[in-house]
Amino acid sequence: MLNIVLFGPPGAGKGTQSEKLIEKYNLTHLSTGDLFRKHLGEGTELGKLAQKYMNEGRLVPDEVVIGMVEEKIKSTPDSKGFIFDGFPRTVTQAEALDVMLEALGMKISGMIALDVPEEVLKERIRERGKTSGRVDDQDETKIATRIKVYLDETLPVAGFYENQGKLTKIYGVGTIDEIFGNITSVIDQYK
Length: 191
Ligand code: AMP
Description:
Elements: E1 2-7, H1 14-25, E2 28-31, H2 32-42, H3 45-56, H4 62-74, E3 81-85, H5 91-103, E4 110-115, H6 118-132, H7 140-154, H8 156-163, E5 167-171, H9 176-190
Parallel strand pairs: 1-3, 1-4, 2-3, 4-5
Helix pairs in contact: 1-9, 2-3, 4-5, 6-7
Bound molecules: adenosine monophosphate.
Adenosine monophosphate binds next to helix 2 and helix 3.
């Protein structure tokens, strides 16, 4: 089983690369941002709870995220593996994921961290905002908050996997196919 954490700041290309990876390796895409947006669209209680955090570019509380991820993993028992996209975003989430996976006889194969300079991130998010319809992509303050939250709260998660010898950094600027090629050469070593 292949379980990959695709890591990086907002706008790093995690969603784009995830789409290609799930196709190549036949994996399940588990994007917590997408799951929250789905709940929001459906007007569920979870969606309403998440909305105020998402709109401000802040993190949804850990226990809410962890519960939602656990439900998704357990509801996909036949999966060949998962691409975790936008999760874990705190060390607490990473620890909870390890515990959850161990109980299911699973483990993280590795983390791939996409490295992209801040100015490129901001430009990509602004561009995405023109078509994504995401309010959090269309406001400079919200974009800046998300990058700050990433640096303050999420970056330590890379250290968590580095301590386990599972971190590989990949430069996330270039063509989509070039970056994809670099990611797959790392993943192919996991097998
Ligand atoms: P994303 O699509 O990954 O950029 O996520 C959009 C928003 O959803 C984030 O800015 C957070 O408000 C929320 N979110 C997504 N994933 C997480 C997570 N793992 N932990 C906390 N909040 C999250």
